[in-house]
Amino acid sequence: MQTTTVDVPTGDGVADAYLVRPDGDGPFPGVLVFMDAFGLRPRMAEMAEIIAARGYLVLVPNLFHRFGRTPLVDLSGLGDEAQRGALFQQISPMIGALTPDVIARDTAAYLDFLTAQPGVAPGPVAITGYCMGGTNALRAIEAHPDRIAAAAAFHAGRVVTDASDSPHLGVGAVTGELYFGHADQDPSMTAEQIATLEKTLDAAGVTYTSEVYPGARHGYTQADTPMYDEQATERHWHALFDLLDRTFRR
User: Fold this and answer.
1) Which of 84, 148, 217, 232 could form a disulfide with 141 if both were Cys (CB 3.0 to 4.6 A apart)?
2) DSSP 3-state of 5
3) CB neighbours (10 Å) of residue 189?
4) Interval 201-236: pLDDT, tens
5) pLDDT of 87-135, one tens digit each?
6) DSSP helix/strand/coil, 31
7) Domain containing residue 178
8) Which residues pair with 211 in a beta bridge?
9) What is the distance between the alpha carbons of residues 86 and 145, in angstroms, rounded to a whole number?
10) How many domains does the chain have?
11) At 128, which CATH number?
12) Which residues are catalytic?
């Protein structure tokens, strides 16, 4: 496969991104990957390559592109849990800048770029996201239900809040399938919030799966952090590929 760094034009500048193309001529279904808060780095490229190895053309955009190109913060201490709080202090303003309108506009640009790639299969794509990327993947499919056929969110935080624009309140727009792989030990997505999400999805008639991964912490798929859980990550891969295979009838 071929992994390159590309520039994706958006209405607010250029987003650097990983583009991973499988071997062969295609056509390959398109998959968007929304990064966690720690941004584009080798782990995100590795995960994109695992997806591409199954025959998908994958785009991983820098969601924080308004703040500059990757890297935006020093991640040398990412493996040290004691430094996690300091890292989040730097990243928090970038996370807060990702409003629903910004995500909707940027996602349109990412979709335009991905679907214009040589060898990509025609029609809707799928999206998967991690941590804040999972929350924003939900926002993306809500904003573009005709262009995104399925969305997966793994250890996504703050999907349910008290805000009038809480992500869970927009699920009525979704026409595709959703998957949620919740972390059992996640203060940003409690059992009560998960129940609220599921009740809202049921009321909206959305096709979805919502599962709690026992013992897993927020960030369980990220092998370069202390939150990594190998068993939960393997479960996540099975769930993701089941969703993608169903979506694209593979």
Assistant:
1) 148
2) strand
3) 24
4) 999 999 999 999 999 999 999 999 999 999 999 999
5) 989 999 999 999 999 999 999 999 999 999 999 999 999 999 999 999 9
6) strand
7) 2-248
8) 181
9) 37
10) 1
11) 3.40.50.1820
12) 131, 186, 218
